[in-house]
Amino acid sequence: MKATGIVRRIDDLGRVVIPKEIRRTMRIREGDPLEIYTDNDGEVIFKKYSPIGELSSFATQYADVLYKTGGEPVVVCDRDHVIAVSGIPKKELLERRVSPQLEELMEQRKTYSFTSKEQRKMQPVEGVERYALVCAPIIAAGDVAGSVMYLCNENQNPAGDVEVKLVQAAAAFLGKQMEE
């Protein structure tokens, strides 16, 4: 843990303002849930809460099945980071931040599919030269919780209906699991 040098006072209602610079850097938006941790040294730690993160082992198993079914690499992410990978080395993508392009797509609740060789490809993970073939948002209780996607292989053909339906079904299924 590193110190920021910023000090804030607690108001009479017990609130603390998280500075704008930290919110921007950590991608904390209005309405985002934060988990609160304490330790024996008196430290209070706020961590962004990821409802889909609690399903990470289940999401990993589902990604493995989706990879075996469709034959394309699979990525499952929450609103900020990759939480499950199958079909490519996990250390390449796991825990990496999602791209602003993917964040915007999730906010719009749209399914993306790579449909023609002339189309501009979407890079879903920051700092990784891999592109999405199909991507669908995970929606739970009316809120966007993350996304499921197939990644393009080299010399990838455009996405077909089968890939689109598989990813949409996976996103819907994970969304229902989160609601239960």
Automatic annotation (TrEMBL):
<dbReference type="InterPro" id="IPR007159">
    <property type="entry name" value="SpoVT-AbrB_dom"/>
</dbReference>
<keyword id="KW-0678">Repressor</keyword>
<keyword id="KW-0749">Sporulation</keyword>
<keyword id="KW-0804">Transcription</keyword>
<dbReference type="Pfam" id="PF04014">
    <property type="entry name" value="MazE_antitoxin"/>
</dbReference>
<keyword id="KW-0805">Transcription regulation</keyword>
<feature type="domain" description="SpoVT-AbrB">
    <location>
        <begin position="5"/>
        <end position="51"/>
    </location>
</feature>
<dbReference type="InterPro" id="IPR052731">
    <property type="entry name" value="B_subtilis_Trans_State_Reg"/>
</dbReference>
<dbReference type="InterPro" id="IPR037914">
    <property type="entry name" value="SpoVT-AbrB_sf"/>
</dbReference>
<keyword id="KW-0238">DNA-binding</keyword>
<protein>
    <submittedName>
        <fullName>AbrB family transcriptional regulator, stage V sporulation protein T</fullName>
    </submittedName>
</protein>
<keyword id="KW-0010">Activator</keyword>
<dbReference type="InterPro" id="IPR014213">
    <property type="entry name" value="SpoVT"/>
</dbReference>
<dbReference type="Pfam" id="PF15714">
    <property type="entry name" value="SpoVT_C"/>
</dbReference>
<dbReference type="GO" id="GO:0003677">
    <property type="term" value="F:DNA binding"/>
</dbReference>
<dbReference type="GO" id="GO:0042802">
    <property type="term" value="F:identical protein binding"/>
</dbReference>
<dbReference type="InterPro" id="IPR029016">
    <property type="entry name" value="GAF-like_dom_sf"/>
</dbReference>
<dbReference type="GO" id="GO:0030435">
    <property type="term" value="P:sporulation resulting in formation of a cellular spore"/>
</dbReference>
